[in-house]
Amino acid sequence: xxxxxxxxxxxxxxxxxxxxxxxxxxxxxxxxxxxxxxxxxxxxxxxxxxxxxxxxxxxxxxxxxxxxxxxxxxxxxxxxxxxxxxxxxxxxxxxxxxxxxxxxxxxxxxxxxxxxxxxxxxxxxxxxxxxxxxxxxxxxxxxxxxxxxxx
Length: 151
Description:
- This protein has 151 residues and is mostly beta strands.
- It has a single domain, classed as Jelly Rolls, CATH 2.60.120.10.
- It contains one helix and twelve strands, in the order E-E-H-E-E-E-E-E-E-E-E-E-E.
- The strands form two sheets. The chain has a six-stranded antiparallel β-sheet. Strands 4-11-12-7-6-9 form a six-stranded antiparallel β-sheet, with no helix packed on it.
């Protein structure tokens, strides 16, 4: 058993800038507590930053910690792997203290909705099966109706 405190973890890790629309950084919590069955991150979205469109091969849980954010769910239309049409099917506000479960293979985006304040959440990525890798597929899109490529 290992204990840590998210406020005491000072090692910020940069994220791949191709996966976000603005400045974002994170702290890897699962390494601090030596978690084996899930990856846990404290993700900080600067003013208006959000993820690009993506899905995971395992379930994900988001817990809003600071600020105001949103989770947007999309439906895919077409059979091509890297170019297809999309439609937003749901937009969910995320306020401090909110928790939401995102099922595996759900096409979505999340992050800050405020151009003035930052937003942060804890992301728990649950491994699809024991000793397997958690995989995220990222897409370039217009967030409205078109995906143009896999990133």
